């Protein structure tokens, strides 16, 4: 019975996934913020979206806050010459005038941390506030989507070694 319910939810989400949600404020457009469902014991989850700057002025994403999540960081995934993937904490992300910055698996991403026993579940919405230097605060919701619905080949953050993390500054 449980399986049947889950399948129904998944079908519903697939049907609605095409309806991208976005948030616009003062020349900044945040497109389809989403996160993948996580394993039950996962301590971290990645968040993805696009941020378009349609204004004539450069802006900067300073930080992301989420009431229900102890720690949220901006990360950049990089693979070094030995094929070792690591994540580098960003103190902010520049959003140049007229450009779109992609937060996607294997690159820039939002790192929701210290989930401690409260995994991201399919259909859940993670409330968060993006703080920009010029556009100010934009409240968004990250839709939690099925991992398999994505074609990018998401890295499993749960298995990544965060001890490799170094600061960008
Ligand atoms: Cu990360």
TrEMBL record:
InterPro entries: LpqE-like, Lxx211020-like, PCuAC_sf. SUPFAM superfamilies: DR1885-like metal-binding protein. It comes from the Bacteria. Residues 1-20 form the signal peptide. Residues 146-169 are annotated as: Disordered. Keywords: Signal. This is Copper(I)-binding protein. It comes from Sulfitobacter undariae.
């Amino acid at each position: 019975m449980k399986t049947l319910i889950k399948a129904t939810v998944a079908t519903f989400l697939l049907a609605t996934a095409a309806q991208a949600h976005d948030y616009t404020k003062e020349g900044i457009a945040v497109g389809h913020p989403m996160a993948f469902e996580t394993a039950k014991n996962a301590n971290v989850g990645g968040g993805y979206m696009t941020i378009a700057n349609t204004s004539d002025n450069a802006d900067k994403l300073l930080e992301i806050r989420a009431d229900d999540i102890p720690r949220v960081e901006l990360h950049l995934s990089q693979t070094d010459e030995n094929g070792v993937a690591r994540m580098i904490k960003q103190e902010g992300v520049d959003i140049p005038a007229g450009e779109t910055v992609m937060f996607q698996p294997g690159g820039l991403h939002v790192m929701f941390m210290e989930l401690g026993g409260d995994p991201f579940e399919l259909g859940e919405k993670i409330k968060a506030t993006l703080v920009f230097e010029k556009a100010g605060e934009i409240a968004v919701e990250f839709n939690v989507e099925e991992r398999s619905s994505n074609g990018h080949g998401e890295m499993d953050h749960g298995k990544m070694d965060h001890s490799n993390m170094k600061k960008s500054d």
